[in-house]
Design goal:
Blueprint lengths: L1 H26 L6 H27 L3 H29 L3 H15 L1 H26 L4 H25 L5 H30 L21 H10 L7 H27 L13
Helix pairs in contact: 1-2, 1-4, 1-5, 1-6, 1-7, 2-5, 3-5, 3-7, 4-5, 7-8, 7-9
């Protein structure tokens, strides 16, 4: 389930960027330049996949305390990047189209490599973030994770197509607010998981562990609890430090996010639906 959420959000950002760029090229009667954008996008996907595979293989070669420390550190890094990404997109969604169109206009005068770089840089950031989040999140492997990931990418691609064909009717601001809120919950769970890894490694004291122990809610007992564990960090037997870390992150970050989202919604001067339809 966490794989679906991460790939939906990151894939949607990448698809939106590509849709804006392609729509602008079409409006300039330069559809021939689209192949350069796709070349940059393809290169970014290859580099991101390679970086993710390398990081996964490196982590897989670790054992014991070293593995726990690295997994905890990756989770903390993922929380930091996730938080930055959510607020960055919330602040800049309304200006995303004009910024990208300016980059494309400059790239057209700079040659094919410059135009390919627009797609490459934009998608590479999303790809590297995705690799970091998926590795930090862990979760179910095998066919289940592939299926969730494919579903997230398919939904993201559909959003990209809608943004390309009729972005004025697509409320991207609402999409980013909803997924942003879910990602903040996801980040809180990641942080609690990082605390658990550091406690297992002896970096943090065990303290009161567990703070409570419930007879229900074992992630291994059903798909619903497993999804809650992957997406929200649910555990039936958390330590005191895990609970403190979870709420110490969720309360202040969540309050700031909700307040900013309300200001954005109430502001008539900011339109988050950034992709114009192509006729």
């Amino acid at each position: 389930m966490s794989t679906f959420l991460v790939l939906l959000r990151e894939g949607a950002e990448a698809a939106l960027i590509v849709a804006i760029v392609l729509a602008y090229l079409c409006s300039l009667n330069r559809p021939d330049a689209a192949r350069l954008v796709w070349a940059g996008v393809g290169a970014a996907v290859v580099v991101s996949a390679g970086a993710g595979a390398t990081l996964h293989a490196t982590l897989g070669s670790l054992e014991g305390r070293s593995e726990e420390i690295v997994e905890g550190a990756l989770a903390v890094a993922a929380v930091a990047v996730l938080t930055w990404m959510v607020f960055w997109m919330a602040a800049r969604a309304s200006a995303l189209r004009s910024r990208l169109e300016g980059e494309v206009a400059a790239a057209l005068s700079g040659g094919g490599l410059a135009l390919a770089a627009v797609g490459f840089v934009a998608v590479l950031r999303e790809g590297l973030e995705t690799a970091l989040f998926l590795i930090a999140a862990g979760g179910a492997g095998g066919a289940a994770r592939v299926a969730w990931g494919a579903g997230g990418l398919a939904a993201a691609a559909a959003l990209g197509v809608l943004a390309y064909q009729g972005g004025r009717r697509l409320d991207l601001g609402l999409f980013f607010r909803v997924t942003g809120g879910l990602l903040i919950l996801f980040a809180a769970g990641l942080l609690a998981g990082a605390v658990h890894e550091f406690q297992e490694a002896g970096v943090l004291p065990a303290g009161v562990d567990p703070l409570w122990s419930l007879r229900f809610g074992d992630p291994a007992s059903g798909a619903g609890w497993r999804a809650a564990a992957e997406v929200f960090g649910w555990t039936p037997a958390p330590s005191l430090l895990q609970v403190v870390a979870y709420w110490a992150y969720l309360l202040p970050v969540g309050v700031v996010f909700v307040r900013r989202s309300r200001r954005k919604t109430a502001s008539a001067s900011e339109d988050p639906r950034v992709a114009a339809p192509v006729r």
